[in-house]
Amino acid sequence: MNWQLQIQMNEKLFLRDPAKSDLGHRIVQHGAIMMERMGYEEFTFKKLATEINTNESSVYRYFENKHRLLLYLVGWYWRWMEYLVAVHTNNLKTPEEKVDVIIRILMLQVNGELTLDGLEIEKRILHQLVIKESSKVYLTNHVEEDNKNLFFKPYKDLTARIAEIFQALNPNYKYTRSLTSTVIEMAHYQYFFMKNLPSLTDFGQLKDEREVYHYLKELVLAALKNPA
Length: 228
What we know:
- The chain contains 10 helices and 3 strands, in the order E-H-H-H-H-H-E-E-H-H-H-H-H.
- By secondary structure, it is mainly alpha-helical.
- It has a 3-stranded mixed sheet.
- Helix 8 packs across helix 9.
- The termini are far apart.
């Protein structure tokens, strides 16, 4: 099943809306692929321009710099995640069922390809990009300015939606937003460690994503069912 979303991104992220032209689509599509493959540090607009057979200046007409492009890609991913949480938890009756689905979504154990205004980006590409590079969107010296520009709103909205579900399981739990952001980041770090630094996890030998899923689910339920 394909998901076709019309997501309105923060207009301050771009100089020209990439969703409204073929070149913009190619910049986003190939930018995600190249940044995931070579890493944020090695990725440049010059390399991207060569890949998509255009001028470097044409890329800069859409995005001020590669950090804005990364913010755009990661922000879009969080919007997609929020959409999946809303859709897949809507008809579930118990908070426990919703917790199970949320963990699976964060582990990308859902069906459907990612479509951005008619442009398909293989879901695993953005998932891997977020795992590897998403912390770079806010670990900067200009994080406060970016926050004032609402660049992190998609992440905050996703956190708020999940925290609300966690709160329903235990209305007396005081740390639902902290738990939510911790679990989201942990889903990335534990996966990355399992694949690359296995001695930092208990999943290094099998390298089985299901073990990460069970660990995260156990962590959430243990926290929320703690009467303290």
